[in-house]
Amino acid sequence: MKNKETLQRHIRVLLVFFMCALVLSGLTAIPLQWELKVLMPFLKNISKWGIAFPAMLTWLERINDGVQNGYGQYPFLAYGTDWLAFGHAAIALAFIGPLRDPVKNIWVIEFGMIACTLVIPWAFIFGVVRDIPFFWTLIDISFGVFGIIPLWMARANTLRLQAIN
């Protein structure tokens, strides 16, 4: 059985990892226009070698076209992804409570687990509504699937910590 300090350290490592991943995934939405400008020539080059998946390249070309033209003519459209990034950062801040006292704030960890679970139906519903390819919906779902793992581990360790106290 792990001692109290080891459990607290494991919980903190898992939560800091989750918080950083959450913030980083949100921040990637801010320079979307620039990211696509850099990414597209690279993807087109590797597709010449038969490495890329044609459907993925076609989809990314469509996204690039929409972002470059949309943001070019209507830069306020990028404001939506700016707020997406803010939302990620704001949610990450909520995990400061469990960093300080995981037992008292286990509800935040459980909230994060619920949010990760809800990514799945959300992506399926709005993927269909917005005509998103199925393979891209699976990529979106992966954020919830992989995000729940450190939270589940943090929750399990928090329950062990609670039993020790």
Give me a quick take on this structure.
The protein is elongated, with a radius of gyration of 19 Å. It has helices spanning 4-27, 32-48, 54-73, 78-94, 96-100, 106-129, 134-164. With 165 residues, the protein is mainly alpha-helical.
Please explain how this structure is put together:
Helices cover 84% and strands 0% of the residues. The chain is built from seven helices and no strands. The two termini are 14 Å apart.
Query: What is the H/E string?
Result: HHHHHHH
Can you count the helices?
7
**Estimated radius of gyration:** 19 Å
Helix content, binned percent: over 70%
Overall SS class: mainly alpha
> What is the count of distinct domains?
1
On the 0 to 100 scale, the average pLDDT is 93
Strand portion, in percent? Answer: under 5%
> Count the strands?
0
Uncertain residue ranges: none
Present the secondary structure layout:
Blueprint: H1 4-27, H2 32-48, H3 54-73, H4 78-94, H5 96-100, H6 106-129, H7 134-164
Helix pairs in contact: 1-4, 1-7, 2-3, 6-7
Characteristics:
165 residues, mainly alpha, 7 helices, 84% helix
